[in-house]
């Protein structure tokens, strides 16, 4: 736990070390992480918002090319959701039957269903900004057989909006002196704000269960 907290607090420094050792291969690594975080139901724990913001910050220092970074992360986000949709469409019924599967928690699926009930197809866009829901939304869309052209439209819009806000947010604001001086706290704040909707949803669900 201590090492995870240290990694989050000093994410920029750790990523800097990766850049020094991996060079251009770092782009491939970042692509894989974002693809997996959005595209595989087994990896919802991977960093998303904080990673993209920090990469934008590093791009502002010249460590990464902002143009290539933007394109690579956007493609990773869109392809990740599309892969997750395909998994849900073709294998979802089989996976959902495995109630004891360690990677598939019923509350995550239920929470995602409630998002769909409330926001409809817009969930694909809104879920980009909610960890865990971001990973399960395209999977549930595939299980529910949402038409792929419709899904792809929302997928591309959501992926483009998500990457744009966070990567350019890091690029333009990440190196402001006050932000740079308290970078660890900024990353923690991003994580807290990201998970807040999920926490609120959990509390609402517990109230509903208590009421019954």
Describe this structure in words.
With 212 residues, this protein is mainly α. The protein has helices at residues 2-9, 11-22, 25-39, 49-60, 66-97, 106-119, 123-126, 133-143, 148-173, 177-181, 183-211.
Keywords:
212 residues; mainly alpha
Describe what is shown at a glance.
Helices cover 79% and strands 0% of the residues.
Spans with pLDDT under 50 lasting ≥5 residues?
none
Category from helices, strands and their pairing:
mainly alpha
Give, in order, the helices and strands.
Answer: HHHHHHHHHHH
Coarse morphology: globular
Major sheet: none
When the domains are counted, the total is: 1
Helical amount: over 70%
Strand content: under 5%
> What separation lies between the terminal Cα atoms?
36 Å
Number of discrete helical segments? 11
Averaging pLDDT over every residue, what do you get?
Answer: 81
Radius of gyration: 18 Å
Tell me the total number of β-strands: 0
């Amino acid at each position: 736990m201590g090492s995870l907290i240290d990694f989050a607090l000093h994410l920029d420094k750790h990523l800097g070390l990766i850049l020094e050792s991996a060079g251009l291969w770092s782009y491939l690594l970042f692509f894989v992480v974002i693809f997996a975080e959005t595209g595989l139901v087994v990896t919802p724990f991977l960093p998303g918002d904080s990673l993209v913001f920090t990469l934008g910050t590093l791009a502002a220092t010249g460590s990464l090319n902002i143009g290539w970074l933007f394109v690579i992360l956007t493609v990773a986000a869109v392809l990740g959701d599309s892969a997750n949709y395909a998994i849900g469409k073709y294998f979802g019924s089989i996976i959902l039957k495995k109630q004891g599967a360690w990677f598939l928690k019923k509350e995550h699926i239920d929470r995602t269903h409630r998002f769909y009930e409330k926001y409809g197809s817009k969930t694909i866009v809104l879920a980009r900004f909610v960890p865990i829901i971001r990973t399960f939304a395209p999977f549930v869309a595939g299980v529910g057989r949402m038409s792929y052209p419709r899904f792809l439209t929302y997928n591309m819009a959501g992926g483009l909006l998500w990457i744009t806000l966070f990567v350019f947010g890091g690029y333009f604001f990440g190196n402001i002196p006050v932000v740079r001086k308290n970078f660890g706290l900024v990353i923690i704040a991003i994580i807290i704000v990201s998970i807040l909707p999920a926490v609120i949803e959990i509390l609402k669900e517990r109230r509903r269960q208590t009421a019954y």
